[in-house]
Amino acid sequence: MAVVGPDGVVDRTGPDGPFAWASITKLLTAVTVLRAADEGAVDLDEPAGPPGSTVRHLLAHTSGLTLRGRPAPRSAPGERRVYSNAGYEVLADLLRERTGEPFPDTLRRLVLDPVGLAGTTLDGSPASGARGPAGDLAALAAELLAPGRLPAPAVAALSTPAFPGLPGELPGFGQQAHNDWGLGAEIRDHKSPHWTGEDNSPRTFGHFGRAGGFLWVDPDAGLACASLSDTDFGPWAADRWPRLATYVLAEY
What we know:
Blueprint: E1 2-5, E2 8-12, E3 19-20, H1 25-39, H2 55-59, H3 85-99, H4 103-115, E4 121-122, E5 130-132, H5 134-145, H6 152-159, E6 168-170, E7 174-176, E8 186-187, E9 205-208, E10 214-218, E11 223-227, H7 235-251
Antiparallel strand pairs: 1-2, 1-11, 3-5, 4-5, 6-7, 8-9, 9-10, 10-11
Helix pairs in contact: 1-3, 1-4, 1-6
């Protein structure tokens, strides 16, 4: 685990070997898509996914695609937040068509190398297949907290509510009347229950994964926290992560 401030890591503990990032991978994929949009390879408002859906809908989990994309879409695009791995796989396929290179190569060119995530690889799904050390996750947290190597507009798009106010289920924490996400990051707002702490600001954003890791960034506190684990997400995480966040915000 690492605690990160505007100038980088302020405290850390544990080994720095590679761990599975699981769904935290979506932050990497989302930033890749946003950077590709800046380069003109894709347009956020072009059709992608189910009829009526766009790249923007896919990034924000509002395309209607279910977790694995089958059966048919659960709802019409823009009606509710339906968390979907399949939507991120559609995005990677689109980028592969437009760039003419494998998606992992695009990811490395646009995100991993610029941010310095030398130990991180994508072996598998662009929704969940990243693997790397906690030091790399902390470096990503630092960049999302204080962008320098990534374009600030891309980080803003990642972390600013898109299609705000939609209902939907936050995986592991149940139905939320207002389940806000940016174009890739989940946004705390006033959700309850939640995987960050009660003292985290509503603008806190990030992602967690089934493999037991998480990354949150609280821009109001000027702090981020990143953790990887060898124990899959479960009740232990829902109990301990919010308490950990409260401790981190009070201590640092």
